[in-house]
Design brief:
This protein is of the alpha+beta class. The chain has 18 helices and 11 strands. A 4-stranded mixed β-sheet has the order 1-2-9-6, with helices on one face. Strands 3-11-10 form a 3-stranded antiparallel β-sheet. A two-stranded antiparallel ribbon has the order 4-5. The longest helix has 18 residues. It starts with about 30 loop residues before the first helix and ends with a strand. Protoporphyrin IX containing FE binds next to helix 13, helix 14, strand 6 and helix 18.
Length: about 425
């Protein structure tokens, strides 16, 4: 069985050996997250972060056990997301783009029932259960990208495939022209800035970084507003057009422009980089184990199992501090007071030895593998899991049709970006054509 832990950058900081060495958020820690998880499971499955709660005087807690994370996400009344701060307005009363999302969350889904309805009625038809409608579009996009480098025998897999495919797919789903993809990439990067460069588990940006983020995002809200207006007048076959026309059954009314703007913001922040990371991690798992690539390539019925195991073993979103406690709780014997902020470490739960047999092995026939936490679970789980899975399935189907063998190319540093996502900056691959 080949290794399933990510390769790490040669110049990375010291690998943790004892619990005192573990800090998931220190500079360079991303190179050793998978060394830290077994230590946390054994020594501190619930780890207190003093003074790092959402409010002054409160603490943060990292949860790494599968059962604890599941308990939290399955009970949103008891463990609500920390989305309670009112949206900040600009001096002229208008809303920065990010806060359009907060406005739309508060007006469209203030309750658990409406949260479910939002998913089933507004996003599922496009990026969730209904994502199969995009099959031909995704196939064409992936095939076009592969055509552009297949004759070379090598590829910058991140820059020439994994990053670009979700960008094209989301541009098509939302109804943005392809020439705007560079701007989408810039805005997408600004949206996730806190998750990459933010400090600690709360992803805190400095005042300078926040103003840089605002500068980069300036114009995004206007850009989307322009399209909403255009598509209200002249609807096409895309998600924004549909959102301008639909009567939202749960509220029995049409959506406002700002609500649509907020939904689009959420689709962009969730839909671009996450799938990029998933594809890049899958390529590495294949490079680590050429026999695995041969096996899946020769029997495509194993591809879905591979994708789910890869998502479990190499979660693109490693953890998020998105839930709070409304009353005093006890997890694994550790007291967690009301008002604490919980960092849910999906990637650690996905390798919890009490939940998964041989947690570090990639088993193509693992039973119940989709219970992994990579997209979270329950009513607030990722609304874009359907389209992301479609992209991964179609991408690997086409890649396997056209590539017989795959290996690491020259010049890989295996350096990961900081933050809370498992993201390689670059991945050079060599391959032989089928
Ligand atoms: C491999 C790819 C992806 C991963 C690992 C991922 C992971 C997650 C996770 C763990 C959450 C739950 C966050 C929480 O409970 O705090 C989430 C939420 C979310 N995801 Fe994804 N995601 C992926 C792809 C996508 C895509 C393709 C989209 C959009 C098309 C998307 C849109 C969202 C949105 C909007 C939310 C917030 C929940 C909501 O507003 O209802 N994600 N995602």
């Amino acid at each position: 069985m080949a290794r399933t832990e990510p390769r790490t950058a040669a110049n990375s900081s010291q690998c943790p050996v004892t619990i005192e060495d573990v800090d998931l958020f220190s500079p360079g820690a991303q190179e050793h997250w998978y060394d830290a998880y077994p230590i946390l499971h054994a020594k501190a499955p619930v780890r207190r972060l003093p003074g790092e709660g959402a409010l002054p005087g409160t603490d943060g807690f990292i949860l790494t056990k599968y059962e604890d994370i599941l308990r939290v996400v399955r009970d949103p009344e008891r463990f609500p997301p920390g989305l309670t701060t009112p949206p900040r307005r600009n001096a002229d009363g208008s809303l920065p783009p990010m806060n359009a999302m907060m406005v739309s969350i508060q007006s469209l889904r203030p309750t658990e029932e409406l949260w479910r309805a939002h998913k089933s009625e507004l996003t599922d038809p496009w990026v969730g259960t209904g994502a199969t409608r995009h099959h031909d579009m995704i196939r064409a996009a992936a095939a076009g990208l592969i055509d552009s480098w297949i004759d070379r025998g090598n590829v910058d897999f991140v820059g020439e495939f994994a990053r670009v495919l979700p960008q094209i797919v989301m541009a098509n789903v939302l109804g943005f022209p392809h020439e705007d993809i560079p701007r989408m990439e810039m805005w997408g990067g600004a949206q996730v800035m806190a998750f990459v460069y933010g400090k600690g588990h709360r992803n805190l940006l400095t005042a300078e970084q926040t103003s840089e983020q605002m500068r980069l995002l300036a114009g995004f809200g206007e850009y989307v507003a322009g399209w909403v207006e255009e598509k209200r007048r002249k609807p096409a076959d895309d998600m924004i057009s549909w959102l301008t026309q639909v009567t939202y059954p749960a509220l029995d009314r049409k959506l406002t422009d700002i609500e649509i703007n907020g939904i689009v913001y959420a689709m962009m922040i969730g839909g671009l980089e996450t799938t990029q990371y998933a594809l890049a991690e899958q390529a590495q798992l294949f490079c680590e184990d050429p026999e695995l690539y041969r096996t899946v390539r020769n029997d495509r019925s194993k591809l879905r199992g591979f994708i789910e195991e890869a998502l479990r073993l190499r979660s693109p979103t490693q953890g998020l501090s998105t839930r709070t406690t409304t009353r005093d709780e006890v997890f694994q014997g550790v007291s967690v007071p009301a008002g604490s902020l919980l960092h849910l470490r999906w990637a650690a739960g996905n390798r919890d030895p009490e939940e998964w047999e041989c947690p570090n092995d990639l088993k193509l026939d693992r039973k119940g593998v989709t219970r992994h936490l990579t997209f979270s679970q329950g009513s607030r789980s990722c609304p874009g899991s359907g389209i992301s899975r479609q992209e991964q399935l179609i991408a690997w189907t086409l890649l396997m049709d056209r590539i017989e063998t795959l290996e690491y190319g020259e010049g890989n540093t295996f350096e990961h970006q900081p933050g809370i996502m498992l993201g390689l900056f670059r991945l050079n691959l060599n391959f032989t054509r089928a």
